[in-house]
Amino acid sequence: MSEQTKVAFSGTKEQEEKLIQVIEKHKGKDGALIPVLHEAQEIYGYLPIEVQEIISENLKISMSEIYGVVTFYTQFTTNPKGQYKIAVCLGTACYVKGSGIILDKIKEKLGIEVGECTPDGKYSIDATRCIGACGLAPVLTVNDDVYGRLTPDDVDGILEKYM
Ligand code: FES
């Protein structure tokens, strides 16, 4: 991960209280960690180190074990999502029509990698599988907006809409 993608943690007291309740609900049960991590990610949107520490302390599970689980399962993320979630389809139809080049251009413009978020919290980039819009390939989405039949030259105009 590049240095500039470190977004300051800004969890609220309410979020922490909710997390503690979740931990209390699962504490002492076999396999408590995975459901706690799922619910923690729903509360915060991601699993930063600060959240992992709260879980570690309250579930009495080591940070290394928690980190191992978080990094093993692809459904968990330690990076926040941006206000604008950009997702570029890398499914076959989109890929053969150049979505990889579009993705590279977005990464270069925003200075972040796939799975990362800009330091101001505004944009994050993900690569997705087929989203069922192959007729529009290559496709990307920004939150609920879908853009299709793209060329790399369209990238600037799309990003400008969300400035
Ligand atoms: S492969 Fe991209 S929408 Fe199907």
UniProtKB/TrEMBL annotation:
The keyword Iron applies. Binds 1 [2Fe-2S] cluster. [2Fe-2S] cluster binds at C89, C94, C130, C134. The keyword Manganese does not apply. Keywords: 2Fe-2S, Iron, Iron-sulfur, Metal-binding. Its cofactor is [2Fe-2S] cluster. One of its GO terms (molecular function) is oxidoreductase activity. Belongs to the complex I 24 kDa subunit family. This is NAD(P)H-dependent oxidoreductase subunit E. It comes from Congzhengia minquanensis.
